[in-house]
Amino acid sequence: METEQTEQEADQSYLREVANSEGLRRPSMAIHCLHHLIHRYLSATMPEDARMATGSNTPIIVYLSKHRDCDVFQHDIERHFSITRSTASRVLTRMEHKGLIRREEVKRDKRLRKISLTTESWGIVEQLRDNAAHMEETLLAGMSQAQIQELLQSLGRMRENLISTGLAGSDRDQGSRDASRLGGVGEKNDASAHARKRFSDKARGRDEKE
């Protein structure tokens, strides 16, 4: 508990330092600071019933809720989050013990066990959605629809600028980012690795010419 409080105090000190400095004049620092604030707001306002779903459980719960109309198996979780079989098995077993998911045999192949959310998890999904919607309203309070659209366009442009370098991955890498939250090790992104080598080779070629 003391460690958690110390980390929160450190975060608050960091955010105050950034806010009081010229850092917020830089868009990247302003976005970074806002990301911290959003995360802390969502943590502080998370409904009590949803707290049983730890950080490693939430991405899987969200994934299952989005794929409610199709059968999901452990190998789908492994592939989407780029985690090992042992990691997926461990996390899913814990979630099953918590009553967050159920695993059922399928008629066509009794070796497979379909994963689905329990009634309790669906309640958590609704609470998380409501909490996120309330945060969004708070975040955008006082802004006109035109300002919001302009903001989204600017953020989209910045996102595309970084993705176009080939060094920052893409939205398809979300599973690998979520893997770190699950305690697993994400697989390397071959496209990003190739792009890094290509940019490195170009830089080396420029240096040799000079």
TrEMBL record:
GO terms for molecular function: DNA binding; DNA-binding transcription factor activity. SMART domains: HTH_MARR (SM00347). Keywords: DNA-binding, Transcription, Transcription regulation. It comes from the Bacteria. Pfam families: MarR_2. PROSITE patterns: HTH_MARR_1 (PS01117), HTH_MARR_2 (PS50995). Residues 166-210 are annotated as: Disordered. Residues 20-160 form the HTH marR-type domain. Transmembrane segments: none annotated. Residues 170-180, 187-210 have a biased composition (Basic and acidic residues). InterPro entries: HTH_MarR-typ, Tscrpt_reg_MarR-type_CS, WH-like_DNA-bd_sf, WH_DNA-bd_sf. PANTHER family: TRANSCRIPTIONAL REGULATOR, MARR (PTHR42756), TRANSCRIPTIONAL REPRESSOR OF EMRAB OPERON (PTHR42756:SF1). This is MarR family transcriptional regulator. It comes from Bifidobacterium fermentum. The lineage of its organism: Bacteria, Bacillati, Actinomycetota, Actinomycetes, Bifidobacteriales.
